[in-house]
Amino acid sequence: MLEVNGEVDIYTAPKLREKLIELIDAGNDRVVVDLEGVGFMDSTGLGSLVAGLKRIREKDGELAIVCTSGPVLKVLGITGLDRVFPVHDSVGSALG
Amino acid sequence: MLEVNGEVDIYTAPKLREKLIELIDAGNDRVVVDLEGVGFMDSTGLGSLVAGLKRIREKDGELAIVCTSGPVLKVLGITGLDRVFPVHDSVGSALG
Amino acid sequence: MAEERFSLRVPAAAAYVGTARIFGGAIARQVGLSEDDVDDVKLAISEACAAGVREDGDGTIGLVAERDGAILAFEIVGEDIPPPLSDDLVATPESFRRSVGYDVIRSLFPDAAILSEGDRSGRIRFAVPIGG
Amino acid sequence: MAEERFSLRVPAAAAYVGTARIFGGAIARQVGLSEDDVDDVKLAISEACAAGVREDGDGTIGLVAERDGAILAFEIVGEDIPPPLSDDLVATPESFRRSVGYDVIRSLFPDAAILSEGDRSGRIRFAVPIGG
Ligand SMILES: Nc1ncnc2c1ncn2[C@@H]1O[C@H](COP(=O)(O)OP(=O)(O)O)[C@@H](O)[C@H]1O
Ligand SMILES: Nc1ncnc2c1ncn2[C@@H]1O[C@H](COP(=O)(O)OP(=O)(O)O)[C@@H](O)[C@H]1O
């Protein structure tokens, strides 16, 4: 579980990428990224998620997203990443 | 009771003044202005409160303020208006 | 001439993309765009400014918004906004990142223009109808 | 020269004072001022811009912020920022309103300067130490 808060853009995306990679390299192969606390995300933030996905796939792991925010879902849709990541509407459903 | 929300500056202060005067002219002579929902207020907002105070005093009424926000208390203190208005830390105490 | 003109200039560093986004969002909200349109404007500005960010943090990014009747037009100008990739170009991670950003802008605002002057200096334009 | 320079220009209308305040607050937060200092900056900008607002909404208000080492300096420029009242002047409600605003700025930032060029055009300056 990685809970992300605030706005994810070119300034904050590197921190997200770092945290994700750390989590995965620590041996977690089923990671849920909770974006419910994210007010804004652009494609640079998505890039961090993709970086995490690539890393976890090397270990045959899975990365899921929890997100119900309209604007964040929109950018996921525009880039087609809503078809790459399993997107859940609650942490419960992501873990279940 | 007048509940104020959002930011009160030169753009929104006239609306606050209008609402206050309306409330007072409708016959209310004990008015409590609840500023708990106010994230920002500058001296133009205070001007609206002062306008209300003048109007209500013409009718021997009273105007009290509920406010616990640091920044709003600060501008009340700088202008000395914390000595002009009774400032309460809850609606209960203002009405009590 | 535009009825109302807003402009901003910040250093071309990642830290200030949020500042430009907040500024653009505040204008968009103030002229009366819907919250959905405000979100689109913020996203497009964020993508455009990200394209203008320089690793060394030198240079500036400019944002101009003009309201002209029922149109709110934005222009983002940077010394380091490269032209969109031609398809046969080998993408570096950096150029790939930018091209995703440009794609986002164009899907939000199909009439968006990404204009370059020479190799790197460029401007990105898009417009939103007000109350549309 | 300043290490980082931020500038903004908006119409001199009441509606955009909030935009300038948000911009200034975002910069103040970004360079690392405490939340208390950010609040002071927002209040001072709001007062300064209110002084620059014109009834007819014509003209512009400019805000420039410069970070130079450990100092963040702000300047608000308007075509219609009149000089502070001399005490013997009969105050109109309008001039009284402005003088309260100037007092607020000066109590937040005792070194604040309210400079006028001629009768109305003026600039208001104040500075905040970063991490002080
Ligand atoms: N910001 C992004 N938005 C959408 N898709 C992305 C984004 N970043 C990367 N991708 C997708 O992930 C793939 C891998 O991209 P990248 O992380 O640049 O790795 P690499 O350069 O090693 O191929 C890309 O081919 C693209 O499809
Ligand atoms: N924004 C303000 N901040 C602090 N005090 C104010 C403010 N506006 C008015 N006052 C106080 O209220 C009094 C009345 O001011 P004002 O509303 O301009 O009425 P008038 O012009 O009829 O005297 C002033 O003398 C001043 O002491």
- Overall mean pLDDT of chain C stands at 89
Most strands sheet of chain A: 4 strands, parallel
Instruction: Characterize the main sheet of chain C.
Output: 5 strands, antiparallel
Strand runs of chain A, count = 4
Which term fits the overall shape of chain A?
globular
Strand content of chain C: 25-35%
Taking all Cα atoms into account, the compactness measure Rg of chain C is 14 Å
Number of helices of chain A: 4
In spatial order, strands of the major sheet of chain A run 1-2-3-4
Give the helix proportion of chain A (percent range). Answer: 40-55%
SS summary, helix count of chain C? 3
Structural class of chain C: alpha+beta
Q: What would you report as the Rg of chain A, rounded to the nearest angstrom?
A: 12 Å
| N-to-C SSE string of chain A, H for helix and E for strand | EHEHEHEH
Poorly predicted residue ranges of chain A: none
Q: Please report the two chains with the greatest interface, counting residues with C-beta closer than 8 angstroms to the partner's C-beta.
A: C-D, 19 and 19 residues
CA-to-CA gap between the ends of chain A? 13 Å
Structural class by SSE content of chain A: alpha/beta
How does this model look, in words?
The complex is a heterotetramer, with two copies of chain A (96 residues) and two copies of chain C (132 residues). Chain A is globular. Chain A has helices spanning 13-25, 43-58, 70-78, 91-95, and strands at residues 2-8, 30-41, 62-66, 87-88. Chain A has 96 residues and is of the alpha/beta class. Chain A has a four-stranded parallel β-sheet. Helices cover 45% and strands 27% of the residues of chain A. In chain A, helix 3 (70-78) links the parallel strand 3 and strand 4 (87-88). In chain A, helix 1 runs parallel beside helix 2. With 132 residues, chain C is α+β, with helices and mostly antiparallel strands. Chain C starts with a strand and ends with a strand. Chains C and D meet through strand 1 and helix 1 of C and strand 1 and helix 1 of D. The complex binds adenosine-5'-diphosphate (2 copies). One adenosine-5'-diphosphate sits between chains B (43, 46-47, 50-51, 79, 81) and D (93, 96, 100).
